[in-house]
Structures are given as C-alpha cells and as structure tokens.
Amino acid sequence: MGGRKKKAKVCDKVSVEDRISQLPDSLIAEILCYLSTKDAVRTSVLSTRWRNLWQSVPELDLHPCAFSDVNCFVSFAERFFDPQREFWIRKLQLRMYKSLDDKSSINRWIDAVSRRRIKYLKLSFDFFDGPDKILPLSIFTCQTLVQLYLFMASLVNAEVVSLPCLKIIDLEEIIYPNEAILEKLISGPPLLEDLRLIGSSTNNAKVLQVRSKTLKRIEIDQFRVVIDAPLLQILRTNIYSTKEFEIINLGFFAKLEIDVVYGHGMTFSTSLIHGILTDISRVKDLVLINGGKLCKEIFLYSKSGPVLQFCNLSHLKAEFCKSDLEKLPTLLESCPKLESLILEVVKDVSTRGNKKPKVMFSKVPQCLVSSLKLVELKRSTSGYEGEIELVRYFLKNSTILKKLKLNVYYTRKGMCAFLKEVNAMPRCSTACEVLVL
Length: 437
Prior knowledge:
three-stranded parallel β-sheet
C-alpha cells in the first residue's frame, strides 16, 4: 500500500526592496528631520548610501549632553559648521550648559549658519557670565531669519539691524548693554508679528519703547515697556505690585491675558487698578488668571467711585479659586455685552478650604438678560458645596443662553446625583443645551 506523498511546500521568495534609499537625497533629508539629531547621525551606519546623508539634514538640535564629553561635542560642531563646507541649515537649536574653553567657538558656528539661509535660530545658555554668550554681529543682518529665540544670551550694540524676514522674536533673561539695542532689534524688522520679552526679578532695566507698525502679539513679564503698536491684537502679561506696560496707541486691541501674581499681604494701588480697568475696557476678549484676586481689588476700588464699564468685552475666560467666587458678580456687572464666559474654579492656595463660596448674586447682571449665550464651568479641584447653586443661577437667570458646558469630575454615584439635579432645574432659556463633559 503506497503511502501518500507529501506535497512539497513551495515558498515564494519575496525580495524586500529598499524603497526609502531610492528617494532623492533632499527628500531623505526632510524625513530625517523627524528624528532627533542623534538618531539622524546613527543612520550613517545603515549602508554606504546613508553614510553622509545626515549631513544634509536642514534641522539640527545640538546639546552637549548628547555626546560622551564636551570635546566630542565641539569636534562634531566644528566639522559640521566648517565655513569651507557647503551646507544649508533651516533650523538650529543650540543649548549650552557651560562655557567652552575656546570662547570663540559658538560665535563661529552662529556666524556660519547666519550666512547660510537659516530661518529658525534658538540659542540657550544655561550659565552666567562668559564671552562666548556674546552674539556675533552677523545675526543682526541675517537676510533669511524668520524666528529668533534667545535665552540668557548677551547682545552687542549693533550699529546696523537688517532682518527683512524676521516675524518672531523671543527673548528670555537676556543681557544687553542698553535699551537702544533692544528697541532697534524690535522696531527694525518690517514683518515682525510676535514678540515675547521675559525678564528676571533682578532686571533693573529702564522703560523699553516697543514701536512696531506690524506687531500683532506681545507677551511680557518683568519688563517695563511702552507699547506703540497700532495693529496689536493680543497682549499677555503678568501683573505684580506694579503695572509694567503702557499702551499709547488709541486703537482697540482684541485680546488681553492677565496673570495676577498676588503675594501674601500684597495690595494694589488705586492708580494700578485704574490702569488695569482702563486697559480691560478696550478689549473684546479677556483672560484672567487669579481673577478673583483682581475682582476683590476692583470691589474695593469701586467703593471710592464708579467702576468702568467694559462695553467692548464679548468673551471672558477667568480663573477663580473657590473662596473668591463671591466676587464674580462684581466683574459680570461691568460686562453688559458679554456673550461667552468660561469660568475655571481652582484650588484655594491661601486658605484651607474652610470658607464656603457665596454664589448668590444680589442682582442679575445685564449680560445674563441680554447677551450671554455660552457658559462653560471647569473645575480642576474636588467638588464643593455651591457648585450646584452656581449652575442653578445661570440656568434660572440667563434669558438667551444657548449652551451650558459643565467640565466637572464626580464619582459614578456622585455624577448620577449631579445630573439628576441639573436636569430638574428650571431654565429661563428654552433653547439652552446642557453638556456634561
């Protein structure tokens, strides 16, 4: 009896084709941009085809910590930024944590890239004094630079500033000989749109004149500035015991973001409150961090005279701690045309949570009757007694409210009870939709 013959198994050999290596060098270089610089260099061991491809990558992120020692880092940078080598680099991030033995190295590297069509330059120096923190003059005349970020760098007194493509300037804890060089750097670029100035607590600078016909967005912290920017749309700032900015152009700007840094025992002067209220009265969109503290000062200020009406304000995003919620009516009564309110309740820092917030308004603000269409309540702290009353108040008194968003957290059992109570609440606006996120 003949046995069954086993059918021979035929395996088709499918050759694995290396399609990536067939791509043009320029396209491979763009793909390598999605890797860290360290991993991009590692691709050189893949094959002879890949040995030098990483050198064409137009984006470079250099940090000494990625190398075995500083000498290896310097050797790598010297080869890459060799002025005799033809290369194009679009983006360079260079982070230094200590001064180098050769003080001129960093300047040579920056000088090399500033002459090679660089668009994005980010330099960070995590150490204090050192001549290698002083930037070369070529950086002030780079014809292709679009974004400049400097951290703890030292500026020189450049006679000529020519940056025709620069749109973004980000300066943090920089060292400069005088205000004139900063003012020249800010007013010179004809396309500048974004400016970020972050000083330090030891910054003893005089008043900085910020003049630009194109500037749209400004963020300042611990810098004293006078702003003359007719196209200004957004201003972000921290306010301590003094107001460090002044806006001299008379036009309205769209958005103001204020973080009220309120230390223990700190009070605001009447002139400071008046200045803040004047600025708020000019905007359509307002973001208040620690808004309750500011409202407390507004309440004290209002006792000495009428509070300004924020007739231009349409959108308000405010952060209140629980114990300051009782000041919310003071703010809403000054916003007769408010259309949207985003209220975030955060944890009390200065109290132990023993104080229960009072959320009952003495009267219904005008905006609830005539303009308020969207309310969003956020809570990044544990539930508290009074939240349900706050929800009830908006549903009961908001005549044209279209949407109430509740971004809150409860246990499953607590959420069921919360939803049941919310659904049973009477609504002044029949078109109001309640969303629990």
